[in-house]
Design a protein that fits this description.
Strand 5 and strand 6 form a beta hairpin. The protein has 178 residues and is an alpha+beta fold. It has one domain: Aminopeptidase (3-Layer(aba) Sandwich), CATH 3.40.630. The two termini are 22 Å apart. It has a ten-stranded mixed sheet. It has five helices and ten strands; from the N terminus they run E-E-E-E-H-H-E-E-E-H-E-H-E-H-E.
Length: 178
């Protein structure tokens, strides 16, 4: 394969240019930057996870304000997954709001979203990325290691101090060198 592409479990190709694609049942899945028109779908996907207590709910206004930080997975014209990035320093960023509609889970879509986010972060010069997650197994399989939340005071001061779960946070901090 060319230097810009590599195989993903024999199911497709990661294009390091503009989008990530994988073949799923004769159709294509694309991972791309989100557009304003995707805000409603992002809201629906993240709300599904918020109802289950897996992530905090994001308002439509918050999603729209941060739309340029989101990526979406699109399958047959439908947005089926999302994730966002947040920068804390020139070298440190977070991947957040990773969610895939339940009927599309366990198909590698979350991994593709994370890989797209990591690719963009590398291009920006970020050398370390972290997540706060309840799914340590998923992130562990893709190279993240557990670390104390206190390692990220920027995150705590910016976001956690406003979180309703502040005093009973059940999320695990994980980090990866890029």
């Amino acid at each position: 394969m060319s230097s810009g592409k590599r195989s993903l479990h024999g199911r497709g190709v990661l294009n390091r240019q503009k989008r990530v694609s994988v073949t799923m049942q004769q159709a294509e899945l694309f991972v791309r930057y989100a557009r304003l028109a995707d805000a409603g779908a992002i809201s629906a996907i993240t709300a599904e996870y918020a109802r289950k207590g897996i992530m905090l709910e994001r308002s439509d206004e918050n999603i729209i304000e941060n739309i340029r930080n989101f990526f979406v997975a699109e399958y047959n014209g439908e947005v089926i997954g999302c994730c966002a990035i947040a920068f804390y320093t020139q070298k440190l960023a977070e991947i957040r709001s990773l969610a895939v509609f339940n009927r599309f889970t366990l198909k590698g879509i979350g991994r593709l979203l994370v890989e797209k986010a990591e690719m963009v972060l590398r291009e920006e010069g970020v050398t370390e990325v972290f997540v706060l997650t309840l799914n340590r197994n998923f992130f562990g399989r893709i190279g993240y290691s557990e670390i104390s939340k206190e390692y990220f005071p920027q995150k705590i001061w910016r976001d956690c101090t406003h979180c309703p779960k502040l005093m009973a946070c059940d999320e695990i901090a994980m980090v990866k060198k890029l």
